[in-house]
Amino acid sequence: MSAAAPITQAPAAAMSEAVFALTFALLLIAPLALAGVALINTGLGRSRSAAQAMLGSLAVLAVAAIVFAFWGASLAGAPGARELAFHAAGKSWGVLGLGPLLLRELGSAAPQRQLALLFEFLAVAMAAMIPWGSGADRWRLAAGCAAAAVIAGLVFPLAAHWIWGGGFLAALGANFGLGAGVLDGGGAATVHALGGLAALALAWIAGPRRGKFPKEGLSTAMPGHNAIYVLFGCLLALVGWLAWNAAGAVIWLHAPLAELPGTAMNTLLSAAAALLMTFAITRVRFGKPDASLCANGWLAGLVTSTACAAVATPFEAIFAGAVAGTVTPLLVELLELALSIDDPSGAIAVHGAAGLWGLVAAGFFAAPSGQLAAQLVSVAAQVGVLLPLIYLLFALLNRVVAFRVDPDGERIGMDLHELGGGAYPEFVIHRDESYR
Questions:
Q1: Which residue intervals of 135-215 are DSSP H helices?
Q2: CA 148, CA 64: separation in Å to the nearest integer?
Q3: 36-434: CATH, from 1.10.3430.10, 3.60.15.10, 1.10.600.10, 3.90.180.10
Q4: Which of 2, 134, 157, 309 meets the CB 3.0–4.6 Å disulfide criterion with 266?
Q5: Residue 92: enclosing H or E segment and its boundaries?
Q6: Is 398 exposed, middle or buried (0-12, 13-18, 19+ CB in 10 A)?
């Protein structure tokens, strides 16, 4: 099998009814990726915060969808539509869309544009959900919802317009001959790198869980409370990812239907290779494989595939996944032990680093000359522009809606503190005197 074709950012021809129906059906399955991530985040947290973690996933999804419908979608824009742009070096640099508010153009939009909007709704929900897992056991529901509004109302629309809406990253090919512009069929940059960078900003601002890093500088193990949730979430996410990547290939890369089986196979192969590498690494390092790290490796392979599944051969997909599966457990350990960053879900490594790696891998694998340079520009834009922006917005938001729960609330658990009841009322899940 050769790399997927055609690779283009040019507008596609009118979509046939069969292609529309198939893509719409794929998008109806894609939310299983959200369900899988929510279940993984819940299982990796502590038992006394499980209900709050799952409710929070639903809440941030709901807030992100509403905010994106009101004005986020208009800022994300569409190729060829009105946009805010500046001119430099004789080129137009599109920064932000200027579409109508409240989805007023939806009824008259072309079928492909309607599918693109639905895809963006799922994408913004995923981007908002990713940092929620990193704030497990200490991030307040109100603050999580406020952060989701910031992501959906400004940060995601910026990233989406740059790549999917005809902005300056999409135009790198036409303006500077860098391949076909940035290629990101599944949202490695617009969803996962963005969400992972938001998780990093959150971890810096909120700080670690109480007792995670004792004064003597050691790291205390706080294992996830339910490995079954985590591992089943991996299987659930696979189903959603297969549909997600295939739909993204049609909508953003205009892939023909004959390329979709290869995209789905590459998605599976990337995840499989990542899992096996993480399994082997944890087996060597700890004497036995680590279930939660293996789950992180699997998810990192899926994240990597979002950028490169539609442009890679099966062997290339295996290679990309193997790299993600090798780096993920090592980066998780580095962040915790060397940098004292408490990330219960591993989102910084799993979504942030793997998403950026997927962009680079797509640059290696895609056919157009100069594609790698375009992908590297996208990585630089994510780290150099979006990370500082997210950190600034979150720091300001934290002054208005405090991110972190008070110490007593963290001690008794987020379920009792915020919901008034636990996820497992039949069981004694902790003793107060054991938490200091």
A1: 141-150, 156-163, 172-176, 194-206
A2: 5
A3: 1.10.3430.10
A4: 309
A5: strand 91-97
A6: middle
| CA distance to 193, 205, 277, 299, 376, per residue, from 147 (Å) | 16, 12, 34, 23, 28
Helix runs in 334-432, H state only: 347, 354-365, 371-381, 387-400, 407-412, 414
Q: Are 218 and 146 in contact (CB under 8 A)?
A: no
Please name which of 57, 5, 387 lies closest in space to residue 197, comparing C-alpha atoms. 387
CA distance 410 to 428: 17
Element (H, E) at 39: helix 31-44
**Distance of alpha carbon 249 from alpha carbon 14, whole angstroms:** 16
Contacts of 13 (CB under 8 A, 6+ apart): none
DSSP 3-state assignment of 138?
coil
Residue-by-residue pLDDT tens, the chain, 436 positions: 334 444 555 555 577 899 999 999 999 999 999 999 999 999 999 999 999 999 999 999 999 999 999 999 999 999 888 888 888 777 888 889 998 899 988 888 899 999 999 999 999 999 999 999 999 999 999 999 999 999 999 999 999 999 999 999 999 998 999 999 999 999 999 999 999 999 999 999 999 998 888 876 678 888 899 999 999 999 999 999 999 999 999 999 999 999 999 999 999 999 999 999 999 999 999 999 999 999 999 999 999 999 999 999 999 999 999 999 999 999 999 999 888 999 999 999 999 999 999 999 999 999 888 899 999 999 999 999 999 999 999 999 999 999 999 988 888 989 898 998 888 887 655 544 344 4
Domain ranges of the chain: 36-434
